[in-house]
């Protein structure tokens, strides 16, 4: 199973450590194409490629080749929104994770999208079970 | 011509006045479906509908029926990213406007997308000419 993990880069790296935890856990279920999103050395300058077109086209190719998209949507990010939008329009399965108790206000375009599965949580440990259930059920239905 | 204007709502309303200026100008070229995005009384609570699914489905219907999307992408917004992503994947023409000289760092998914037309500017007055050119050339090619 190829998993596209989406998290904020230029929108802000305050959740990079959490992304890394989620990515390490996702790797027990399949290949995570976007492992660099959890890299603590990647800053909000977002220089994870030689230029923006390279980054966009590489990420889009990964998105197209993925079986499932998992997006952490707490930190507000234009790029994560874009990836979720393209994936939904492609008909790909999308799971969004939103952490409650922050000042972040989840977009109605995510919270109100019936094509997106949405998990509300407070800390990483709460994600293990629902992530496992989602990815197992998804794998079984393939 | 039906124009879908996208701007930040729950991501933050600091640019609401600017959105209103852009919308008023866009109205000289066609119908702006999302005029409420510039409404100064709309706060970042984003309660521009009875619930999130209503807001999402209404906005998506407008997006689908629009001829062109104009998105102000300076204020970081998950919803604007989502709308641009869906529109690009639908094959719709998308024009993004990014204001330089703020602390905002434009996403590589917007800046590096060759299917998006991107205008950098500093203040509203600079937008008149390029917006007119874009919308006229687009209308002429229909």
Descriptive report:
The structure is a homodimer of 142-residue chains. Chain A is of the alpha/beta class and 142 residues long. Chain A has one domain: Rossmann fold, CATH 3.40.50.450. In chain A, 39% of the residues lie in helices and 17% in strands. Chain A has five helices and five strands, in the order E-H-E-H-E-H-E-H-E-H. A five-stranded parallel sheet of chain A has the order 2-1-3-4-5, sandwiched between helices. The interface between A and B is large, with 41 and 41 residues.
Record the SSE blueprint.
Two copies of one chain form a homodimer.
Chain A: E1 2-6, H1 16-26, E2 31-32, H2 52-65, E3 68-72, H3 78-90, E4 94-99, H4 108-111, E5 116-121, H5 128-140
Parallel strand pairs in A: 1-2, 1-3, 3-4, 4-5
